[in-house]
Specification:
Helix content: over 70%
Length: 108
């Protein structure tokens, strides 16, 4: 398997995955992971690419919703702080505490 993928292929996969996600409201990660792995990327590399893309698309989406007035500002920090703490705790547990063999069937 090759770790090399061209930018146009990655952009096309992202476009297709975003079209699916925009249409049905979910599936960006699963759809794009399947296509990237089929294109020859290792699963870990595909996952990293997807998570980086989701960070930027989520940030732009959040800013757009904030500017359009679709955010209840008084709920922002009470929801954001526990969400960030939960995400960081989960990442730490998966990376450092829980053995890889135990989570492999669920992550795959």
């Amino acid at each position: 398997m090759s770790e090399v993928i061209t930018a146009p292929v990655a952009a096309f996969v992202g476009f297709l995955a975003q079209m699916v996600d925009g249409t049905v409201g979910m599936g960006f990660g699963a759809f794009s992971a399947s296509l990237l792995i089929a294109a020859g990327l290792y699963p870990a590399t595909a996952s990293a690419m997807i998570h980086v893309a989701k960070v930027f698309s989520g940030a732009f989406s959040g800013v757009a919703h904030l500017r359009l007035g679709n955010v209840r500002r008084r709920w922002l920090w009470p929801l954001a702080v526990p969400g960030m703490l939960g995400g960081a705790t989960g990442a730490y547990l998966l990376a450092s505490v829980i053995p890889g063999r135990a989570v492999r069937p669920y992550v795959a």
